[in-house]
What we know:
The structure holds two protein chains of two kinds.
Chain A: E1 4-6, E2 11-14, E3 19-25, E4 32-38, E5 45-50, E6 55-57, E7 60-65, E8 70-75, E9 84-91, E10 97-99, E11 103-108
Parallel strand pairs in A: 2-11
Antiparallel strand pairs in A: 1-3, 3-8, 4-5, 4-9, 6-7, 7-8, 9-10, 9-11
Chain B: E1 4-7, E2 10-13, E3 19-25, E4 31-37, E5 43-51, E6 54-57, E7 64-66, E8 76-78, E9 87-94, E10 104-105, E11 109-113
Parallel strand pairs in B: 2-11
Antiparallel strand pairs in B: 1-3, 3-8, 4-5, 4-9, 5-6, 7-8, 9-10, 9-11
Amino acid sequence: RKEVEQDPGPFNVPEGATVAFNCTYSNSASQSFFWYRQDCRKEPKLLMSVYSSGNEDGRFTAQLNRASQYISLLIRDSKLSDSATYLCVVKHNFNKFYFGSGTKLNVKP
Amino acid sequence: NAGVTQTPKFRILKIGQSMTLQCAQDMNHNYMYWYRQDPGMGLKLIYYSVGAGITDKGEVPNGYNVSRSTTEDFPLRLELAAPSQTSVYFCASSYSGLDQETQYFGPGTRLLVL
């Protein structure tokens, strides 16, 4: 079983739409959770950390459900510049990070 | 700060050749990592280091070696290159503090083994 599973998409949405991505992880002892963004042929960059109480950064909201081992990312008012692949990342102890395969988002005019 | 730098950007190897991928960071981070990313896939951890002189295996270490003689540098060595090692290789670093850690990635090295 994969450590981190994501729907690969693609999600094709119009500008201004709200879109949500989900991610599940298999290790209940996972310590930290993140969403990274990766543009085509570029390195991943941290979008936001995910906290147990849920957290928001502008148009982005992340939620964590430890009981269900489930992480979500909500993007409101999508922009063309949001088009990218979104990677769900889970950290175990000793700083071992596990990446999902990513969910591709295409925002269209 | 240059952040995390990687060289080369792109390389073609023949089967059986060897090479070293270079990675350096100037942020005084104690943790460093090597990942590979195959097309359409997530990143898989090859090796990581928690500090100078200390390295450990990740998910996919076979066919690779690393060393960490300084805080700044974390080279990845490929011996006897195989077509299965065709991939994009990313180096990353992070600082292990009390709060959640952010990884900073280099721009990647694209490797083609023919």
